[in-house]
Amino acid sequence: MPGAWDRGKAQSGLEYLMNYGWAVLMIVIVLGILYAIGILNFSNITQQACTPATGFSCTNLTLNTSGYLAATVGTSIGSLSITGTGCSNSTNAPPSNTFVNQSPTVPLVQGSQVVLVFKCPVFLSQIGAPFQGTIWLKYNQTTENSLVSTVGAISLTESTSNKV
After folding, report:
1. Quick one: which of 97, 95, 94, 73 has its CA closest to 152?
2. Is 79 left (phi over 0), alpha (psi -120 to 50) or beta?
3. HEC string for the chain
4. Residue (of 110, 85, 108, 107) closest to 96 by Cα position
5. Rounded to whole angstroms, how far apart are CA atoms 68 and 148?
6. pTM above 0.90?
7. Other residues' Cβ atoms within 10 Å of the Cβ of residue 101
């Protein structure tokens, strides 16, 4: 009776494939649902980071879809009088006409921190879009005026719609 034995093996093999096939199908459906509702949305994994330049600190970054970035900035290079803030999408300073003028000037005392707003050149203008660039300050010190300096290199995602 070789035919009955072969049918039993075939049936066993078919049951094996059906059981594991359903299990794999259910896993794919669950992963699809988790991705659709945003739990497995890997574009949100970009960490907010600011690598500060020597003499500065930068924390608490928030970037909206219009390109306005709020950041807490500190200094250890002495007392500054901030006259403008800038942001670029490279390591080069932004054009001087794109700096946000601070009027009146914002005092930043050595060892303290202040929340500043920067205007960054975002391209996608949507929540979750990544942005990398550099934030800049225009400032005066007691001995020199009209200095421009890098605060830090930033990497974050647009996280709010038009609120900073």
Report:
1. 73
2. beta
3. CHHHHHHHHHHHHHHHHHHHHHHHHHHHHHHHHHHHCCCCCHHHHCCCEEEECCCEEEEEEEEECCCEEEEEEEECCCCEEEEEEEEECCCCCCCHHHCEEEEEEEEECCCCEEEEEEECCCCCCCCCCEEEEEEEEEEECCCCCCEEEEEEEEEEEEEECCCC
4. 85
5. 20
6. no
7. 9
What is d(CA 3, CA 11) in angstroms, rounded to the nearest whole number? 12
What does the alpha-carbon distance between residue 60 and residue 32 come to, in Å, rounded to a whole number?
33
**Which distant-in-sequence residues (6+ apart) come within 8 Å of 116 by Cβ?**
70, 71, 72, 73, 82, 85, 102, 106, 137
Which tokens is 52 given? 């500060």
Task: Tell me the pLDDT of the chain (164 aa) as tens digits.
Answer: 555 556 667 788 788 888 888 888 899 998 888 877 767 766 555 578 899 999 999 999 988 888 899 999 999 988 899 999 999 999 998 988 889 898 899 999 999 999 999 999 887 777 778 889 999 999 998 888 888 889 999 988 877 766 65
Amino acid at 7: R
For residue 48, give the amino acid letter.
Q
